[in-house]
Fold this protein.
Amino acid sequence: MIQKAKERQCYDKLIVDDVVTCLEQQEKTSYSFVTACDVLAYLGDLSGILSNVHRVLTTNGVFAFSTELLVNEEHELDYHLHECARFAHSRSYIEMMATNPLNKFE
């Protein structure tokens, strides 16, 4: 995928790294837009990524992401690892984490 992205020649920067580690190394308030398509499905606990995205976003910055919805919330799980090695997250967990990424962890 990185090779295909390079071929397009439309990106300012391409990075291959652990997403949380990469974000931790970024300067504060560096980006107005961060996207994570098909990334959160490989993370259970979203505290690391969401708190770091919040830290690097400018004041009116946007974080656009996709996730798999945990449909069966009867056990009140925040997230669940499926046999296919992808996580699904409950709607309440996503909403709580997205609206309060720093309050829970600082």
Notes: The mean pLDDT is 88. The radius of gyration is 15 Å.
